[in-house]
Amino acid sequence: MKVVAKIVAANRLTDGETVWLGAGDRWVETIGGAEVARDAEAEERLLATGNAALAANLVVDVTLVDIEIADGRVLPTRLRERIRAGGPSIHPDLGKQSRHGAPHAI
């Protein structure tokens, strides 16, 4: 069964790393650790937290990302977000996908 929901993504200002807003309003480096919004109220809260981090110069490019949850995995619906989550689609030896246990971009 697929669940359609949203998460908040951004890029950390200090190094450009793609990060996701996780539990406790902490930024995490793996998409599986993102806090999932399943309704409009949760989306607004997550986006407000992301925009506060933007105002504090912690992150840039705060974005609500459409996802599906299938078999317990968070899967972005757009290719751009899948690449941001996994790393370059042509170099599996670089980016997040090169790290132990990280999902591949596609």
Sequence-ordered SSE layout with sheet pairings:
Elements: E1 3-12, E2 18-21, E3 27-28, H1 40-55, E4 59-70, E5 73-76, H2 79-86
Antiparallel strand pairs: 1-2, 1-4, 2-3, 4-5
Briefly say what this structure is:
The chain is of the alpha+beta class and 106 residues long. It has helices spanning 40-55, 79-86; strands spanning 3-12, 18-21, 27-28, 59-70, 73-76.
Protein described:
By secondary structure, the chain is an alpha+beta fold. It has one domain. It is 23% helix and 30% strand. It has helices at residues 40-55, 79-86, and strands at 3-12, 18-21, 27-28, 59-70, 73-76. It has a five-stranded antiparallel beta sheet with strand order 3-2-1-4-5, with helices on one face. Strand 4 and strand 5 (73-76) form a beta hairpin. The mean pLDDT is 86.
Notable characteristics:
106 residues
Distance between the termini: 20 Å
Q: Give a short account of the largest sheet.
A: 5 strands, antiparallel
Percentage of residues assigned to helices = 10-25%
Count of distinct structural domains? 1
**Count of alpha and pi helical runs:** 2
Beta percentage is 25-35%
Given the helix and strand composition, which structural class is it? alpha+beta
What are the secondary-structure elements, in order, as H or E?
Answer: EEEHEEH
Oligomer: single chain
How many distinct beta strands? 5
Tell me, rounded to a whole number, the average pLDDT: 86
**Spatial order of the strands forming the largest sheet:** 3-2-1-4-5
